[in-house]
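Quick one:
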Amino acid sequence: MVAPMIDLVAKICGSTARALLIYPFFVCFVWLGTASGAPRGARVDKSKEVAQKVYVEGVDHYRAGRYSEALAAFRASYEMVPSPNSHLMVARALREHGQLVDAYVEFGRVVLEADAAAEKDVKYLPAAQASRAERAKLRARIAMVTVYVKDPPADAKVVVGDRIIERESWGKAIAMLPGALVARATGSGRPDQRQEIVAVPGGDLVVPFDFGDTARPTASEPPTAAPAKPAKSEPPFPPYDGLEIPRQPAKEPRPPPDRTWAYVSFGAGAAGLATFVAFGVVNESVFNSLHTKCPNGRCDPSLASEADKGRRAQTIANVGFGVAVVGGTVGAILLVYAGAGESAKSDEIARTPARFKLTDVSITPHAVGVRGEF
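Output:
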C-alpha cells in the first residue's frame, strides 16, 4: 500500500518528492526491523543491505546531476548506517547543490570521523584524504569571518549578514559566503554598533566590537560642545607691483629654403622634353619619307639605313620623354618639401610684449587671476 502511494506522489511532484518520501520510509523500515524480535546479526545485515541500496541510488542521482535527490539518499543511508563514505557524499552533494558554507562545515566533520575510523580500518583512509583535500579546495571559494566582542553586556547579540553569531562562536573563524555584508552588534543600554564589510573568496576577515567605551550621555548631563575657535583672518594675497617680465630675445631668422636640387630636376626634365620633341620630329620626318618611297609597304633594300635612322630617333625620343616625366615629378616633390619650412614664421606672434607690468595676482579655489598693464 505504501509503495503505490509513493509512486503516485512521484508522478505528480517529480523525482525530488519521491526521494523525500522514500528515503525516510527506508529509515523507518530499518528501525522497525531493528526494534522487532529478529536476531541482532540479522538486523545489522538487513540495515547494511538497505543502506547500501539507498547509497547506490544516491550515487546514480549524483552522477546525473540531481543533487537534491542525491543529498536525500546519502543522508538516509548515513542515518541507517553511519559511514565516512556516505558522510563524504553528503558533503559533496551539498557543495554541488550550491550550499558552500554547509559543505565546508560538513567536510570538516567528515575529516574527524574518517580519521577516527581509519585508525580501526584502513579502508576509510581514502575518505579521510579526499575530505581533507576537497575541504582545502573549497576554502578558496568561501570567506572566514572572526568576530571579537570586548566588554559585551549579558544580552549582547551579534549578527553578520543574515546569520546570528552565537556567543560560543566569538573568537572563532566562521565560514561565510563572500560578498558585501553588514555586521551588527546590539546590547541593552548600549548603542547599536554597525559595520559594513566585504568578504573576499579565500580571505580572512576580523570584525571587532567594543562595548566598553560606548556609554551614552544621560539627559541630566548633556554633552558640552567645545568652544568654537575664532576664525583666523588672513591678509589678502599681496599684489606684485612693479614686476616686469623680461622680453624674450628675438630668434634669428631662418635661412631661405634650398631649392637647388628641385631646379636641377626641373632642368633635367626640360632637357628630356626637348629631346623628345626634337627626335620625335626626326622620326616623323623619316616615317613620312619612307611611306612615300615604299608603295604597298615594300621598301627597296637601299632604304634600310634610312629606316634604321628612324628607329634610333624613335628610341631617343622615348628616352627623352621618360626623363622629362621623372625630372618634372622629382622637381615638384623637392620644391614642395623645401617650401614647407616657410610656415614656421608664426613664432613671432607669441612673443611677450616689450614692456608688460604686472599689477595684481589673485588665487581662488577655482581660478587664478592676473592683472597688468602695457
